[in-house]
Amino acid sequence: MKTADVLGTAVGNTFRSRTRTILTILAIFIGGFTLTITTGLGTGINQYIDQTVAGIGAEDVMTVTHEQADAGLDSGPTEYDPDAVELNGPGGATAPGRSAIDPITADDLDMIAGIDGVESVEPSKRVSVDYAQVGDGTPYTMSVGTFVPGMEVELAAGSQPDLDATANEIAIPVDYVEAFGFDSDADAVGATIELGLTDAVGGTHVVDAEIVGVSEAGLAGSLGASPNPALTDALYEAQQTGAPAAQAERYGSAIVRFDPAAGDDATQALKDDLADAGFAATTVEDQIGAFKTVIDAIVLVLNAFAVIALVAAGFGIVNTLLMSVQERTREIGLMKAMGMSSGKVFGLFSTEATFIGLLGAAVGVGAGMAVGLGLGNVLATTLFADLPGLMLFAYEPLGVLSIVLLIMAIAFLAGTIPAARAARQDPIESLRYE
Predict the structure, then answer these.
(1) CA 147 to CA 218: how far, in whole Å?
(2) Which residues form the MacB-like periplasmic core domain (predicted)?
(3) pLDDT of residue 433
(4) Taking burial as the number of CB atoms within 10 A of a residue's CB, which of 41, 210, 309, 356 is the most buried?
């Protein structure tokens, strides 16, 4: 019997005991369905986290500040340092416990650039806008975030600010659309916004910019307006008007580019070298790593329950095929008497087990994906409507294929016991079996 004949016979024999096989497939279906749902949940949440933190920076960028002890809420009064600068988080929010730090100077930038593993370094220019106004409308306070290479805001309308453009461009938070008098998010795109700010000697400056996008709120709420580098430079230059030259070269932090492909050890070595030089470095992974670890741990526990269900289904396969071997003892004896090798007999029954696993996987994974995507669409417009872009369940082709292969592997392993028993049978004794 050729290999193709073995495969055809195995598929044909699968439903010789239809009720027993269907019940076994249903058991596999439960495990496959559960594993698909839990895996999709983990993938969807992690994709949303990655999408949200794209507004913070890129994986090849780290933010560097001067190393200093955190000033906790219970640490008592902090001595005033006239040379310190404010350290602001995304959207201009002051970082708790670290509202003032030693400034990054031009000498510091040169020192950082000379550290092994640093591909480039540039200062992070923090700007403080007094108000934002569209036309003759009401002026509103608005925080303007610091540009970080690799940033991509989640858009409700429009496009990302062009990082290479010489014109001033900005993406405003969706919260300001109605306040500025626009009828819709798309209506705001293309309008001109005026940004007013005060310089170092108390003078007032107004910088115009084109609204090219409207950004959605993320997990942490609105992160403020997102300017392109040209607008950041224009605002910073206006803000520093009248300031001493030495003060103009004092920054809250520096942006360092490195090669994440070099591996975690190289990245940690770079952080250690920066720490030895008196600097603290933070990557996007540092900010979200712990959160993603918790999500992955929860999903792993849920997946464990699904695998337990699959193992239980494996015992069903063992039972189904053992009974099939017993019922087909004379048939096995006849096949071996006609020259079919023990290996082919083993392959016949193990293929039956694998095919049962494939059927259960196909039904379970297909149903899991359908339910997950359907439920995700419903929740995205109801319970999670305030979290635009969140699709609670997401599936990647490689992940789905991995689930199917895992179920088939479990089915194959379960089928080895009855397949081995069939392969060991003596043809003469089998033919005498009643």
Answers:
(1) 17
(2) 21-268
(3) 59
(4) 356
